[in-house]
């Protein structure tokens, strides 16, 4: 094995959990965990609440010892590395707010260089270059003289990534970095992390509750099941092979392949299948309206047919029939379409229903 394909971080037969303490018995949360994070990979760690994601991350970064097995960092047993040697290879960013008083962004990022400083603590040209690069890579260069306390959650999140990057780690671990971020900031952060895997060659491991983000962005997904097993694989393999559906779906829920997310029953009257005759964006939003009404879009030629003309507002009709009280026999807008489909669902014969109405969460 060459250094290039040696895992940056590896778990070998790891048992993760909590040792016995006075009145508390020992708890094994995860057992027989085998994982490998290779250089340049973006890995997402997903699983239901309480499954053991944080326990696994803490074990992988050495914040708690494994109950069994070994964790290797860059081929070295994590337990045998000094804190300084560890910090030169592994950076960790947790969700908890960091109390850094009135420190500037630049000073916070410079903390990432501590593992490289001599006991005198003076920064070298290499330290300063690493801080500059980290500020640019994390997209926070323009914030460098601002106080960390004055930033938004999203900006502070990026600064903490910059501090971790200044460590020049082989492995970067982020605990729920997308929590508290709005959709645009989440997409920006995801794009930044993907870019970083290519530019720095680091393996980036992050836990998240955002299933669609986890499946769309990752090179590898680590799926922690409620049964204490951890499954690793390409996102497509885990989604296609039902591992994701088995882990996350319960009664009235299923995994929607197209949206890469869980869909839940909305409790209304189930509709039938319908073929949406439209193109582009209007088709996408028509299918959205169809699902919201409890019907199911299909490519099946025998199904009901919904014709939609682009707008806005869009104009529509179902099965070629004129829509009563509508504009020239066509319904106008998606709100009236959803209403029409819901009313129509109540008069459908039982045999043609598509199942429980479902809608992406
Ligand atoms: N200090 C502890 N001592 C004993 N058991 C613990 C301790 N911390 C967590 N646990 C238990 O370990 C299990 C896994 O918890 P963990 O926090 O790792 O789950 P998680 O997947 O990160 O959950 P969430 O998505 O809710 O953050 C839970 O049953 C939890 O109660």
Description:
It contains eleven helices and 18 strands. The protein has helices spanning 53-60, 83-87, 105-110, 125-137, 153-166, 183-200, 211-217, 235-240, 243-248, 280-292, 334-345; strands at residues 9-18, 27-37, 42-46, 68-73, 76-77, 90-93, 171-175, 203-207, 220-224, 230-233, 253-256, 261-265, 273-277, 296-297, 304-309, 315-318, 331-332, 358-360. The longest helix has 18 residues, at 183-200. The protein is of the alpha/beta class. The model has no long low-confidence stretch (mean pLDDT 86). The site of adenosine-5'-triphosphate (ATP) has 11 residues, from strand 2 and helix 1.
Low-pLDDT runs of 5+ residues are: none
- Quickly count the domains: 2
What's the total count of β strands?
18
Q: How would you spell out the order of helices and strands?
A: EEEHEEHEHHHEHEHEEHHEEEHEEEEHE
Q: Give the CATH superfamily of the largest domain.
A: P-loop containing nucleotide triphosphate hydrolases
CATH architecture classification name of the largest domain: 3-Layer(aba) Sandwich
Overall pLDDT level: 86
| Major sheet summary line | 6 strands, mixed
Instruction: Indicate the CATH class of the largest domain.
Output: Alpha Beta
């Amino acid at each position: 094995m060459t250094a290039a394909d040696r895992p940056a971080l590896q778990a070998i037969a790891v048992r993760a959990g909590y040792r016995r303490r006075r009145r508390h018995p020992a708890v094994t949360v995860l057992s027989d965990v085998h994982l490998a994070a290779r250089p340049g990979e973006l890995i997402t760690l997903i699983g239901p609440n309480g499954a053991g994601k944080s326990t696994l991350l803490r074990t992988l970064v050495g914040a708690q010892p494994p109950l069994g097995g070994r964790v290797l960092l860059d081929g070295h047993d994590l337990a045998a590395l000094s804190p300084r040697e560890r910090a030169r290879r592994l950076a960790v960013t947790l969700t908890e707010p960091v109390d850094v008083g009135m420190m500037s962004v630049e000073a916070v990022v410079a903390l990432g260089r501590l593992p490289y400083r001599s006991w005198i603590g003076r920064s070298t040209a290499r330290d300063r270059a690493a801080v500059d690069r980290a500020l640019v890579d994390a997209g926070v260069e323009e914030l460098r003289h601002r106080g960390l306390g004055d930033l938004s959650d999203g900006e502070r999140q990026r600064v903490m990534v910059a501090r971790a990057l200044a460590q020049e780690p082989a492995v970067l671990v982020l605990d729920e970095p997308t929590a508290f971020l709005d959709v645009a900031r989440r997409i920006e952060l995801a794009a930044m992390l993907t870019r970083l895997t290519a530019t720095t060659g680091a393996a980036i491991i992050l836990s998240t509750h955002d299933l669609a983000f986890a499946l769309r962005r990752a090179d590898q997904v680590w799926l922690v099941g409620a049964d204490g097993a951890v499954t690793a694989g390409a996102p497509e393999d885990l989604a296609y092979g039902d591992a994701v559906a088995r882990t996350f779906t319960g009664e009235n829920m299923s995994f929607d392949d197209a949206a890469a997310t869980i869909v839940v029953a909305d409790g209304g009257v189930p509709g039938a299948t319908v073929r949406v005759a439209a193109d582009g964006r209007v088709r996408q939003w028509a299918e959205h309206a169809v699902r919201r009404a409890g019907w199911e879009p299909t490519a099946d030629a025998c199904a009901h047919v919904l014709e939609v003309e682009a707008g806005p507002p869009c104009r529509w009709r179902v099965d070629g029939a004129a829509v009563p009280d509508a504009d020239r026999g066509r319904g106008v807008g998606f709100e009236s379409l959803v209403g029409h489909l819901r009313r129509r669902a109540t008069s459908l014969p039982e045999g043609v229903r598509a199942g429980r109405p479902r809608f992406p969460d």
